Amino acid sequence: MSLLNPSLRACALVLPFALVTPAFAQQDRPAVTAASPDGSIVLTVATDNDSRPTWSLSRKGKLLIAPSKLGFILTDGLNMVRGFSIAGSDKASGQERWEQPWGERRFVNDSHNELLVRFQQSDVQGGRRMNVRFRLFDDGVGFRYELPEQPGLKTMRIADETTEFDIAPAGTAWWIPGGEWNRYEQVYQKTAIDAVSTAHTPITMRLDDGTHLSFHEAALVDYAGYWLKRSDGRKFRTTLAPSSQAARVIRDLPFNTPWRTIRIADDAAGLVDNDLELNLNEPNKLGDVRWFRPAKYIGIWWGMIRGDWSWAEGPNHGATTARTKRYIDFAAKHGFRGVLVEGWDKGWNGDWFGHGDDFSYTQSTPDFDLPGLAAYARDKGVHLIGHHETGGNIANYEAQLDAAMRLYGGLGVDVVKTGYVADAGGIIAPGEAPGETRMEWHDGQRMAQHHLRVVETAAKYHVAVNAHEPIKDTGLRRTYPNWVGREGARGMEYNAWGAFANGPDHEPTLVYTRMLSGPMDFTPGVLSLEGADHAPLASTLAKQLGLYLALYSPIQMAADFIETLETFPKELDFISKVPADWSESRLIAGEVGDYAIFARKDRNSEDWYVGGVNDATARTVTLGFDYLEPGKRYTATIYRDGEGATYLTDARHEIAYETRTVRKGDRYDLWLAPGGGAAMRLVPAK
Ligand code: NOJ
Ligand code: CA
Q1: Using CA atoms, how far apart are residues 15 and 491, in angstroms rounded to an integer?
Q2: Which atom of ligand 1 has the smallest separation from the CA of 419?
Q3: Global pTM value
């Protein structure tokens, strides 16, 4: 099957929709309705008494989203909020099974019904036209505004988008605050839905009747990211990330906004095993991307994060030629494809944090031989992973971007980690006049443009991108499959800076929140279980292995010092074998914020891997093996929490190893320690 032509079967049936249906909204105004393929989700689109466009959803006959308004506030004209009527609508449906070049699963199914509603404002309101396209899947809904070309509206200057989500039932939410100084790097809060303030997306909710929801967006291109702001009760609306301009988004017509998405499921697994945002993104624009290889990597990194080494030149400089050679040798010996080196370039000696104008992306420090090391690595089948920290200064970075990517591409450095360390709102972007700069937000329109510029430039030179302090992931890896990873949440690094810094709940919460947006460069594999000054991690040893199954990334780090990794031969063996690319993935046990156990099948063999992470509560989970091939025996190598293990004491190092034979239909009782986890490798027996 060709990766150049990932679409296996596509058909889009466009049916003219006979004007407006006889169904009427509550105010006796005409409404249009549509249902998901199995009929469980029903959408109603109407206008209210104030002629404001509204949408609502029911699921299995129960109201889920009460009538909620749609519209825009503009900086330079009448708002697009009132005076609307429905001018017409069209229905369509789509069925497709498409192939991912890499990912949690090889094939993705897309089955949806579509409703396009054409709204028209009255002459008094400018007579403007605004279309809204809804796609209804059985496990979620997406909709976007489509602003067609029209006389009298050439450019939209959007002060804010006022898309409402009025959540009918009560429930619980897991969320991080939007617009706060540490960007997305927050510990998740768990509150009642009506106690949320302004949240980043994805935000996850469990309604009192057990329905699970996740609000997010898809295909965030040339637009500001939105934060979900609670206005009243359980009523939320979008508010766009700010800009240095009065308008948060400026776009010439015609254009489409990103899709506003809601995953909807009966249980936690239904939220996780869900491809809504990927399905709403455009297909691969890069063609054959087999030059990107999902793989694991080590790096000259943890030493800087802990403070043992420095990024800047000096006696403790981390990125030296001699150390990098040792890392390359270790990678070659233990099967790691990548070696990340940070602090290799000039510019770290000044005030790089939130400043970054000294960074060079082409000149290495005198004690780091970039071409020599790239060649040394290549000879051993290893690839350096490059690093572009910007300190948030994209004016400086964009000026060097092409040269920087050309340099890496030419040396076989085929993945680059980028970084935007600066407080929220601290991005330094080029202004209009030469030398002039403007301050932007990490998730504003300017950064949406910037990240794609980096990804497209990198693709030209066959380089893949892993962005830290990024804009949130909205499924653009489908369109640009060289956008392979991102941070965009509190990663392992926080554990270097304080005891139990991320807390035992963090990873079992990430699975159901941040991870719904896409792969994360969390950087697992700190087997010492300690940060600086012996600060303990809220993790057992087995949990460090479970992270490779719980938090998907096609580039997975083993974050610890190589000298430490070497002292854990059994764990190192697991890490060196666990794949970073899967043909199938499913959550086989878990609840939001409590625990998560996945079964994943290697994309390149018949092996299965099972494992995941637990919160602070010890529990026994009975695992089935229903996904295994019938009649086949598998040898399971199991790494689980040892007797008495707990993240709270030195017993966090207690681990138990077990080998047994398993078959489809077997059951296995897995005990998970407080802050624990587990990992298993299942290999078909000969
Ligand atoms: C923050 C990133 O998350 C971390 O991985 C990196 O080492 C530092 N910035 C420096 O770029
Ligand atoms: Ca970070």
Answers
A1: 47
A2: 11
A3: 0.95
